[in-house]
């Protein structure tokens, strides 16, 4: 109405920005998290013990959580507050990244831990939870701000979210009481289930309340990708099809499936890593600069990349995707069993433990530049790296002089030994004109000798602050499944005749090397 | 020469020490450190360990005229060896009327960041210059700077900003780190000089006095994170800062006022308020609010009426009161910040106080308590402050704006009026 009135008067509507808290500029955090309760479902589980609880404790220890903070731990085991606190203490002693524990910080943290027994199938369970939350909220002054963290089996997501909705725990209040839900990956096991889960979540929570975690996005080096690309003037002009020959992204693990045989049988490398970590890295490398460093602007650009990725040809002989499964072998001087000999694994399992693919991004920036991605279990070493391989120089001036240097390469190491390496040619000292490749190497460890926060610390703090930049949006999840689904469906329809097709401790099946060799390229050696 | 020292993860150790008596000799020793691949130690169980990597992210120059201050600064910097490896020069002067001489100790401090990682080392050069040499610090420091790395000068004493030699030294610097709360008198005159200096050059300034207050700023800013209180932010009518003094007479000039004035300056600069009347002593009968005891910090009695100033956003005025109370806290420490805002007949009053580990915020809307929060925010150590200064990177616009605003509040003359 106001705009209409202004239009009639021949005036343009005001474009004044909504009021901002100008006092926030230059302060350490964009804002101190509001007083709040973190409601941790699956508090007695492995993920909570290894990652979530140590991260929350670390945030508390470093004064990044509000004074009015409560951790309401939800579980099915018969703990009381005291016994659960003892359990948390043990988890921190085993998994905290800073030891020994700070006794003063632990004492004040422990006072804020409350245990609540909840059987997810109990009809009154969520009513009781709502009543408990209301009591704690009043007693501890947390102002109705609740962060529900689902560190549980994916099969339980929908039921818990529906339970929260049934008792109104999703309702935000005009007086500032916010409600957010953090959902761990995997988000669905295919496109259809992801859509279904998005619908079920969407029936209860608005998208702005939903924080889907892919912990890779919280890693310091991944966050630095955006600073590296958009905070430096010299790289972005070279970040396109004119200069880049191809991109390689490797997520290699030396470990096997540990004790997760049953889980891995249902997922495989494509669902476990390609659909989320790898495609997230691809979208961060390939995206256009967002207009603002803000959650939706960022995710808009990422989702455009996913939409631009062409369907991957899946033909077993000439397709652009390769699957593998490890057999017995040697890793780090230890003999390890093959995948089919692992616990809880079908002796004739067709589950892939390795996947390599060539992705093409059909947009103005990347047309004709292949993105080769690979991930696998029981590879020779743990390494995650993004390599931008630049084109050869247009005219080889030094081709008669000994060894020709390799084309320039920019390697971004995500883990371990986080850093960035640039390779270029240099003259070998002497009377001749020999050229050799040398590297400029930036290591986080030597330039910033401070411990980086764990990805979970970053992400939990962001969720408490309402910053969804590093979380995955519903459409991103669905687009990623749209890329992976045809691959896993084709594999399900045609079992691999050659499994196991790589030995543990090698870099995957021969077909993976052939995928690049037919383009005249090869995987980087690690 | 190489020094044998056992390495513990995360703890810097001295691995090389040599003396030199000229700039050329210092340069020679620096070159020797890094060319000495046989920089071996006789550490038990670690034969043949050598310096694996030299690491410098900046040049850090400390101007410390007194030896005990130099030692104190060296200890602070060593705590940052791993976090911000730098070429550090600690420069002092002695015997100003004697003949020129130079004595330097060139050291390499090394740290093993974590198990299995290479040891990284950084240089520290302690230079003392006598006679006329000591008056030309730039001539000592400039040849020893690593090219292309930023230069930060930490001046823990009171920098004589008006001297040409100081200006010459600062011309080579990207950042000057000072502590305005340690300056003599009110400190406001020096603050004005500093603001003038940064206006005329590209020098960035970090003042520990301002950095220390970040916990207060966090707490004050948090009040206006609440959408209900945010509209009041542009309707401030009064800012009152209470600070500790040990001077019962209430005479100005004995207590450093840099920290309390920075509170006002920060608010003014963020809110775009300009100084209409600079700080001047308040005269006239006392108002009741000025005499309130600050019980939590032990202050029980007012000492003088304080200083008043007027700010304006062009439409309305904001009254400023900076008032002393007798307190056992260090003189010049901020004890309380009070804000009063009025908007459309409604009033918002905020009261912020701090203790060693916490900051306490209370807010009343139209006389009714609307918010009470505690922030866990311990006071910051000098190591934290120096790290924050180094990590600030380029120009800290918020800090610079606050400095300009503080200089404007201090006015053109002596606040004693």
Report on this structure.
With 526 residues, chain A is of the alpha/beta class. Chain A is 34% helix and 19% strand. In chain A, helix 2 packs across helix 3 (81-95) and helix 9 (261-286) packs across helix 13 (474-493). In chain B, helix 5 (188-199) packs across helix 10 and helix 8 (258-271) packs across helix 10. Chain B has ten helices and 18 strands. Chain B is elongated. The interface between A and B is large, with 28 and 43 residues.
Can I get a quick summary?
Chain A is an alpha/beta fold and 526 residues long. Chain A contains 14 helices and 18 strands.
Shape designation of chain B: elongated
State the end-to-end CA separation of chain B. 59 Å
The percentage helix of chain B is 10-25%
Strand content of chain A: 15-25%
What structural keywords apply?
heterodimer, A: 526 residues, alpha/beta, six-stranded parallel sheet, globular, B: 417 residues, nine-stranded mixed sheet
